[in-house]
Amino acid sequence: MKNFKRIIMWSLIPVVIELIGLFFVDKFYFAGETNFSIKKVDTSSKQAEHKINVKIPEDAEQVKVASSGNYISYYDGQALQVVDTIKNDVKQVSLENDLSYYTWNLDTDTLLIAEKTSTGGNSRNLKFESYDAKRDEIYPLKNLEKNQELSILLPDDSYEAKHIAFSGASNVFYVTSSGSEDTNSRIYRIDVMIRMNLVNFVRCKLGNIGAVNGTNGDELIYEDRTSNRIRTGRGGIIATGENAMHYLLNTDENNNIYIGNGEDNKVNKIFVTNLKVDRNNWKTYTLPQYVNKSSIYITRDRKIYVDSPEAGEIKELTTGKITKYEGKLISVYDYGVISQNGNKIVNSLF
Description:
- The chain is mainly beta.
- The chain has helices spanning 2-29, 43-48, and strands at residues 53-55, 61-65, 71-75, 80-84, 89-93, 98-104, 110-118, 124-132, 137-140, 142-143, 148-149, 151-153, 160-166, 173-178, 186-190, 196-198, 206-214, 217-224, 229-232, 237-239, 245-251, 257-263, 266-273, 283-292, 296-298, 304-308, 313-316, 322-324, 328-333, 336-341, 344-349.
- 10% of the residues lie in helices and 48% in strands.
């Protein structure tokens, strides 16, 4: 019993010594330290609501806006210029070949660029590059299995990239190219591994394209301007347009498909559907008057905006909220609208 007590006493000695040491550290070493509190700062909201006021040449072409509003890009005839709207500085994206088409990615501050290259003789190709605006870095898209740069051989010199549509979740994008004869358009599917496949679709005069994701993977949606139909890449027909022209306006993050109904590129109704909904359950928005289809903006978060250029304002259909802007509307982004007033690019927050 005595030995057991002795063991307990010797075990407690180092514990007591450690507690005494901590007591002196707390009372004397940290005696002059002041109290402080930690407060979380939401930097994303500050960045989101920053005022945009940058200058670009009045004759700038293909002015486009990243969804974050942090970057604005334009083509000056020689190179792509990318303006940081927070720092108000400009980076030049030098191109080795002719620019065919470019667009901002859906949810990141990166550009997807299609250049038209010459490989000798009369052969022409589309070469694809990605530009990271935050890092100011450009790199070619390469097949991740073969480590080969993505390149599409064009039928003839008249062909250009016309549209690029992103599927979103599946990281797939579709590219259309066409030449002097619109009925000879081609559609290419490029997956997350940067593997390219030529898409089989109904031969037609091809209009706008979009992409959604379903239980069977990503799905191409496109305008058949020859037959006035909205079709899927797997051969399905979404809308037939018997009584009016149908226009594919956009798709959203919930895989909804937005179809404009009207004539002469003007719309007075907007149908909202998806690949699982039958015709009787489509949601319909009736506009008070015909508007140009280019004045309708569908965002990834399922909002529909209708621009009134004469009034300098844009209206969100479901809430009726109106946002005023200066000059000519360029784009809708996550937190407001971007417009050009002379050589100035400015924003108006929702």
